[in-house]
Amino acid sequence: MSAQVAPGRQADILASLRRLKGAVTVGDVVADSGLSADTVRNGLKALLESHHGHLSVTDSGELVYDFDAGMIERGTEPLIARMWSACRRVTQGAFKAWIVVMLVVYFVVMVVLIIAALFASRRGNSGRGGFGGGRGGGSFGFNSSSWYWIWGPRWRIGRPYYGHRWERTLPKEDRVPFYKKVFAFVFGPDQPRPTQKQLDRSKLRLIRARSGVLTTAELVEHTGSTFPEAEDEVGRLLGAYDGEAAVSPDGELVYAFPGLMASTGTSSPRPPNPAWMRLEPELQLTGNSAGANAVVAGMNTFTLVASATAPWFIFPRLGIGGAAAFWALVIVPVVFSVLFFAGPLVRMIGVGFENRKRHRRNLRRVLTGFVYDRALRGRPVTLSEAHTHVRSRLLSVPPTRNEVASLLDEFVAALDGEVSVADDGDVHYRFTAIREQYAAADTVRRVLELEKRQLGDVVFSTSDSVEDADKRELELFDKELVGPSTRLEGYLPTVDRVDVEEPYELIAFDEEMYRRR
Length: 517
Known about the structure:
Elements: H1 7-19, E1 23-24, H2 26-33, H3 37-50, E2 53-57, E3 63-67, H4 79-122, H5 144-150, H6 164-167, H7 178-187, H8 196-209, E4 213-214, H9 216-223, H10 227-240, E5 244-247, E6 253-256, H11 290-318, H12 323-376, E7 381-382, H13 383-391, H14 401-415, E8 418-421, E9 427-430, H15 432-448, H16 466-478, H17 484-491, H18 508-516
Antiparallel strand pairs: 1-3, 2-3, 4-6, 5-6, 7-9, 8-9
């Protein structure tokens, strides 16, 4: 990890950043605060981990630490958002407890009352041949098998339920109790909430697979995020994992993480899947199987119909009457059953909105693969080819040509790409910045050789003169054994196949270890 900075000096650096409006060089903060350059450099790196910010480079090759002017800390939420989340959790918890009582108890009560009414109607209400006390001692009670159906013997209170697809990955002994599926019917399945360390695992695998050297473009290849988001994230990684940033001779920012490359050498790191092989699945309304939804809906429908018709079917046959009975056996269960069905109906709006956002992100991921493949081959991206590519891989919700064009325009703005119109009217896009970033990272990898934990010759330095930089480039060129285009294309996994990554896969390992303990 990076050298620690005393809290008092870190506060001085933070104060300087606020006075300088967030965008600074090391020299700016040194001049403003009077601290040493090493202290400032370590302090700025630590702030990249804790506050939103990223690195950029000036025309002269100077590194600029660019923080949000408000110095917003990572992971913070506005007060109103936190209050709303807390209120929602309390309300949801109370309603869940009410559901357990209402759905099961009223279902059983209505079954008993209807059977009693049928017996009373059939036998003239003689009272003979009643129910519940005949042979078998529990025709309407809960035996061990019915209790097992409601509760799993190895299930622990508070364990999340991520839906039927997740349930199928569990051992047979880990049976999901029925009440969790009732909750999912109303509120939707639990959503995985991975920690930052869990989210970082695949990124660290990427860094190790790329020999400890990374660029923003390569992080986008892995995450499918926008380039501004990737710049902010790579800044956090730089601070969190003691990385070093420098400017290549071509003016590209390259990030090296020597501390992550310490290894016994017994195995080589396996690169994680790229973004287009980690598409987001559609958010499920309930997450349950069709059978589980049918059981839950059937129970609530039975309660709704039985309670709504009770004044005409149950009450006269059993001699029930009065305001208390009407409220307890009609009003309360009818209101509950209507609200029970209203939950998923209302959530359909939010689920649809979320799935449209996921579709947009998936489109970006698939398009990222196509753009990168063309860029690393030195070929332009045509709008018609890009549209055909993504339509053939996003079959559930085929994107329109305008959606593809809109995302390509975002790539152009972020990467300073070039746009031209061919004679046939098709739009051509060129993204030379992607190839330049990959080439810069490839150069640094082959010279630093961090995977061997030994440094080669210096490949670049911000203090180099033009003559020094040219000399280094010529020396490096003499060491080339493989054509650069072949190497760059080798970094990119296939773009012909797409796949889906379930959100619970990010936390599956940790939850399995917790369960075994």
